[in-house]
Structures are given as C-alpha cells and as structure tokens.
Amino acid sequence: MRLHTTTWGTGERVALLVHGVMSDHRSWRRVGPALAERGYRVVAVDLRGHGASGRAASYGLREYADDLVESLPAGAELAMGHSLGGLTLSLAAAGLSPGRVVYVDPVWHLPEGPEGFRAEAFAAAKGLSREAIRETAPRWDEEDVDIELATLALWDQSTAQGLTEAVGRDLMPAVPVAPSLVVTADPSRLVPARRAALLRERGFEVRAVTGAGHTVHRDDFDGFMAALEGWI
Q1: Nearest alpha carbon to residue 86 among 109, 98, 104
Q2: Which residues form the AB hydrolase-1 domain (predicted)?
Q3: What is the pLDDT of residue 113?
C-alpha cells in the first residue's frame, strides 16, 4: 500500500516521522516544523487504516512495515516513530536504511492476561469524547485535543486487531540497525526500567522525559526536543 504523506521543509537532509495507533501525521504538528527549521525535509506518513491512507482487510505488523518501505525514501538521515510507529519502524529499519533512528515510547511488548491488552476495549476508544481525551491527556494543548477527535473520526478501529501480534511477545530489537535513541515516558509502562537497561546493553541510548506520558512529544514538546539534542 502506498501511504499518504505530508511534508514540511525543503532541506537536503531527510527526516521520516511515523505516528502511533489511532493518530496520523498531525500528531507531529510541532515536531515536523521544528525539524524543518533545523534544515530537514520532513516526510510524515499516515499508516494504513489511519488518516488519509487506505483501509485494508488486514493490519498485520509486517504489512505496516512493508508499507513504510514501499512509501518512504530509503537512506534518510533520520527516522522517528512513536508507539506503534516505533514498533513498525523497527521492523522496517533494515529496508529503509536510515542514518539514525529515534523510537518514542515504542510498543515492543504488550502485556497479556485480564489486565493486559484487549483489542475490543482498545477499539472502543474511537468513541472518546473531548472530555475523556482531556482526562487521559491533561497536558495536551487544546489544538491537540481537536486533532485527536478528528483523527479518531478517520481511524479504522479494526487496526486494534493487528496489535494482538505484540501481546505477550518480546519484540525489542536484538541490536540497533543504525545508531538509535529510545525516548520514553516517565514512568513508561511500555519501556520500564528493566527493559531500558536491556536496551542499553544492546547498544541503544535511552532517555526519559521527566513527567511525560506515553505521547511524549505532545505532553512536553520542549522536553522532548531537549531529549533529541545530539541526535537531530
């Protein structure tokens, strides 16, 4: 599937942005322009089932990754993925061959069991109200709340079924394909301290943004950009 893309900037250096589940390229509304100001041509995708990209009969992790390889330029200087976008980027990294990678609170493991991930409950998020979004993301700007409502309206909640492949599995990369930074929430349910330590042992750099939730770049934009120092 050829994915819909949005571009900021005209610089010679290329940066790729991959959003998380339920979102689309608009979740990077501040990051994209900030990278463009630093001389990048920033290309952000809408994953299948999200935003302006097509819907599909299947939303497997391998299909998400293949879409990235088919839709984005190889050899970008920087590639960045959040949540599901981070997992997808890690699966596509060998094909995309970026110079550097930033994974933002990536979904490399989802817990199973009664308190773990359930696709049907996750899909119900499509009906979240403005008040519910404000409650779950109290640090967001009002514009981000507006964007979330708009992206939920476009989101194919069938994509939640694709995440079941990650339930109970360890999908952390064994080694970084390129120099890689992992930026986490604080605390992070997806990359807790023991997993962060293992990532460091495997050659990843790990930095946490103090007090930020899962949507690190939307919760604390300034803190997120500070965490990227030396990588952008």
Answers
A1: 104
A2: 16-225
A3: 81
The length of the chain, given as a count of residues? 232
Q: What is the pTM of this model?
A: 0.97
- Amino acid identity, position 103: Y
* Alpha carbon distance 128, 229 (integer Å): 35
Answer whether the bond into residue 187 is a cis peptide, omega within 30°: yes
CA nearest neighbour of 80 among 52, 110, 106:
106
Taking the CA atoms of residue 26, residue 54, residue 67 and residue 189 in that order, the dihedral angle to the nearest 10 degrees is: 50
How confident is the model over 108-139, as pLDDT tens digits?
999 888 888 888 888 999 999 999 999 999 99
Measured distance CA(71)–CA(16) in Å, rounded: 11
| Helical residues (DSSP H) of 98-220, grouped into ranges | 119-123, 130-136, 142-154, 159-162, 193-201, 216-219
Report whether 220 contacts 139 (CB < 8 A).
yes
172-204 residues labelled b (16+ CB within 10 A) or e (exposed): bbeebbeebbbbbbbebebbeeebbeebeeeeb
Are the CB atoms for 101 and 35 separated by under 8 Å? Answer: no
- Residue 126 makes CB contacts below 8 A (sequence gap 6+) with 22, 152, 155, 157
Please state, as a whole number, how many other Cβ atoms lie within 10 Å of the Cβ of residue 145: 16
Radius of gyration of the chain (CA): 16
Two tokens, residue 55: 């819907």
